[in-house]
Design brief:
Oligomer: single chain
Structural class: alpha/beta
Number of domains: 1
Largest sheet: 8 strands, mixed
CATH superfamily: Alpha/Beta hydrolase fold, catalytic domain
Strand order of the largest sheet: 1-2-4-3-5-6-7-8
Number of strands: 8
Number of helices: 9
Distance between the termini: 29 Å
Helix content: 25-40%
Shape: globular
Order of helices and strands: HEEEHEHHEHEHHEHEH
Length: 291
């Protein structure tokens, strides 16, 4: 059994004891749910690091699930607890979803959730002991696409805004994208994610605009990419085209493509090779000055 596997088992054992705060993204009066579809409004679960030093790094985690469901533990709480063990605060995002019958939410609801979440974290950074300039985003699969939208489609803060949240910039300080959906095209994109985000017959211009490799520019923050070469669900071309766009615009980036793993391996605690990527992320954050 790998060291990471043992560590994750210990984390799970102490999960219920972990200090945690649930933060709803919108006022209770806001009309953000669909009657008969949503069971809860969007929220953040906050997992603070064990150390109490000020100016900590924080990461907003977007679990995957094809914009239809959320792999909450494998791609949410377990990564959050791993970051906690490494002195990093974590927030797991419950964002709005859809289903094949198109009874739920489509773009821009999910994008609004991730940008609102980033602004909430920044607005409370001082109280939580977080450095707002060291606040990034992480996403897996379709959650990786959502994180990539936050990474490439920014909303600038307006110091004069009446809404205090709108005074904060939505641009993350860094991004960690794990087997991400990037393209909304059907050549190598994930059709299920596209259908749930954009509908069954999306406008071609929207498909292009939300294929996030097209949105990379010099203002894009540093990015860490992880993928498996044998991923049949979300082919590694998604990470590759994003990486190429980052390099075109001289954005700092690292990409690891493993020779195995398929899709949805999460923290890969039982695989001695794949399980190295979380530690590589922490080391990368240190090299970028975010630790």
């Amino acid at each position: 059994m790998s060291k990471l596997c043992i560590a994750l088992l210990l984390m799970c054992a102490h999960l219920s004891a972990q200090s945690q705060q649930r933060i709803f993204l919108y006022p209770s009066a806001a009309e953000v749910t669909i009657k008969g579809f949503d069971t809860t409004a969007p929220y953040l679960d906050y997992y603070p690091a064990k150390n109490t030093s000020s100016g900590r790094t924080a990461v907003l985690i977007c679990p995957g699930g094809g914009y239809q469901n959320l792999a909450w533990e494998k791609e949410g709480t377990l990564p959050a607890l791993f970051f906690n063990e490494n002195g990093i605060d974590a927030f797991v995002l419950k964002y709005r979803l859809n289903n094949p019958k198109q009874e739920g939410h489509r773009y821009p609801d999910q994008y609004n959730d991730v940008t609102t979440a980033m602004r909430i974290i920044r607005s409370g950074a001082a109280d939580w002991g977080i450095d707002a300039a060291k606040t990034g985003v992480m996403g897996f699969s379709a959650g990786g696409h959502l994180a990539s939208m936050a990474t490439t489609i920014h909303q600038q803060g307006d110091p004069a805004a009446a809404d205090p949240l709108l005074r904060f910039d939505s641009r993350p300080s860094f991004a960690i994208l794990v087997y991400p959906v990037i393209s909304m095209d059907t050549v190598f994109g994930h059709r299920g994610s596209r259908n749930n985000l954009l509908g069954l017959t999306p406008d071609a211009a929207l498909v292009t605009a939300l294929s996030t490799e097209n949105r990379v520019n010099a203002a894009t923050p540093p990015v860490f990419l992880v993928h498996a070469d044998d991923d049949k669900g979300v082919p590694p071309q998604n990470s590759i085209v994003f990486y190429e766009a980052l390099k075109k615009h001289k954005v700092k980036a690292s990409m690891f493509i493993y020779d195995h793993g398929g899709h949805g391996f999460g923290m890969a605690p039982k695989d001695p090779l794949l399980s190295q990527w979380p530690t590589q992320v922490v080391q990368w954050l240190q090299r970028q000055g975010f630790r």
